[in-house]
Amino acid sequence: MRNLGQNQESIQASNRALLLELLRSEGECSRADLAKLSGLQPATVTYIVNDFILRGIMEETGLKSGARGRRSISLRITDQHYAVLAIRITRTGFSAGIFTLNGRSIQTADYPYPSTSSAEELVEYISGTANTMVAQAQDYAVIRAGIAVPGPYNVHKSNIVLMTGSVDWSTINLKEAFTRNLHMGVSVLHDASAGALSFYWTRREVHRSDTLLYISVGQGVGGGILMKQEILEGSRGYAGEIGHMTIDRSGIPCECGSRGCLEKYSSSLALTDAVNKEKGMSLSFSEVSQLIQEGDPCALRHFDAACDALAIGTVSMLNCLDPDKIIFGDQVAKIAPQRFLDNIRRGVSARTLPLIQQNLDIIVDDSQIDAELSGAGVAAIRHIYRNFTAFFGDLPQPTL
Fold it and tell me: Which residue of 13, 20, 241, 366 has the lowest C-beta tally within 10 Å?
């Protein structure tokens, strides 16, 4: 296949997106700073920035001191006027939130599913609840939605191929259904990919050239891969589907048709089930988490076993991808972050060549934000950045 060139319109779109992402990352900086960071001509930066200000996307925040005593006008992406809707779908419920175009959270909430519902009914329920949230955000025009879903997720058919422990979602084209019900365009992505995007956006120690592996350990187990700021999806969207990696070929049968899949040993559902079976009880995940935090021997033993299983899967991904950082997030990782991290590092170290481990950061994302929900918002915001004219019209031509 031949490489495709860029026309003037696509170059302008790329420049706009670059400036928005740079300013979002920096928080505040001047036009001169943006020119230096982007490599664009100062006149080009001024032209684009002035249009952003005119359309209410950027704002000037006052003078800042520069080199040699010079002073310049500082800029930032405004958190007024426009926003995106974010939705995170899980097996037992969903989360929704409103985020401004600089990623600030305005409102988030969690909702359980009705007790007896089909996937079609759940789409209607989620959409109705989300539309109410959008209507309540009266000070903002909500112009795009991002939706994070469990995998395996097919990006071409926009359907969840298999969601273990839930109703059958495989027949629904999520992009079409939610676009129709939410009355706006939507970006749909794997929830672990959303976690990777969120981590990249919110952590300043992440470099633009880094390869990140974000492993989401919730009701399922998924891997999101970010290479040079872009999500690696694979040919159909299944890249990073670590939850269905076999770690025991004679192990527990899985709904995917295989045996010994990682999520059967390490997910919050698996951990809860293992503790309940040994104790002969019907504890919830939050109750099992409490037992782990209190030092219950049974709960700790199963927690450590879940971490060891995760370490086995992590080693396989490490050998395949050679990432700069591996980040663990979601429910299981946040129960006892330090114990979790110690277990993972110990398990990875015991199974990996020392040279492969050099300069590798293994991190627990123990922030209080829901990274998968936040990342769904990031996906929507990035789409707006990269398709500016579709939302705000063409830039006016400069007067010569």
Answer: 366
